[in-house]
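BACKBONE STRUCTURE TOKENS:
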Amino acid sequence: MRAFGSICTATLLTFLTTSASADVAITACGGNVPAGETGVLQGDVVCSLSTQTGVVVESGGTLVLDGHSLSGGANGVLCTTSCTIQGPGEITGFSGAGISSSTNPKPRITVIDTDVLGNLTYGIVLTSDGKLSLLNVNVTANNHGGIAIAPSNLTDKGSIKGENVHVHENDGTGIKAKRIKLLASSVETNDGTGILSSGKAVLIDSDVIGNGTDFDPGYDLKTIKRPVLKNTVCNRSGRLTIGNTVEGTWAVCTDD
């Protein structure tokens, strides 16, 4: 199996850490996972109030979905600084984002074996200096876009690293961040640009196709720096300028 950053190592360490500590039972919307502790959903949790946050995870905490769903309310899971969300499970139907960071600086979020779908803003959103690690994650049919570290500009340092990540059929941009690195992933049929990077994208063994369905021409990939594609298919790329306009293509996709 090909090593890809430290995602698999982080997954193992998370499992060992969470297994060694007592669990906090999460039985209702508005739950809280204290710093450094592990909260476990005891069943499907439905938020009945539109202003409620599903679960707040404090710094260094872990939320284990344990095969259940978290739905309704304002925001699904709010990480105050750094946190891990461990599936299997589903986060869906929130009027805000499925997973989000607070405004604290340098958020770090890891998401594993989780489906994030049908939320009214983004599936996953972090502030501009955040780092997001993803393993076996599906982000589908969210209303503003799939995954965003926003705003994303030349001065930001936000990054996304993922393996077996599938971002499909979102109503905006599929993935937006300064730095993006994906392995064995797919970004397909999003209404906006598939991958939008104010820096560089590295894509390995992946498909980025059929995006930009609300635009003519639609772009699967727009980056400021030349993207690195290894055994990856895309239909159309765009050379993004500092002024956020497109000047030609990178000649890396089939229709460039």
